[in-house]
Amino acid sequence: MSAIVLFDGECNFCDSSVQFIIKRDAERYFHFASLQSDVGRKLTKEYNVPDDMDSMMLVEDGKAYFKSAAALRISRHLSRRWNMLYALVIVPSPIRDLFYDFIARNRYKWFGKKEDHCMLPSPDVRKRFL
């Protein structure tokens, strides 16, 4: 079984987050697609996601998760103690999402947008992108 991480393909911070996940996903549990891709648009439509959704999205076990819920569910499958971050699920989601939204709102200002070039992943990693 696997899950799909949908991310903003124009965001440097989001791209770095995907690279972070790939390096710590020893089981190769996650596949990836940008929200702007055909797969991303298909999944957001399938899960009735509003057009103005500005969040990482995780599709796992037939359910969509957003914002901090997506990030914490992703952390459960990471190695090297990163999976312990899932314990933050005890914090109420409105509080967690305040922090998530603050970073999301400022991500372009702090980290910039992608230029016309992008990293060419290895063939093994490329298979994980949809």
UniProtKB/TrEMBL annotation:
Pfam families membership: DCC1-like
Coiled coil: none
Gene Ontology terms, MF aspect: protein-disulfide reductase activity
Domain of life: Bacteria
Protein name in the entry: Thiol-disulfide oxidoreductase
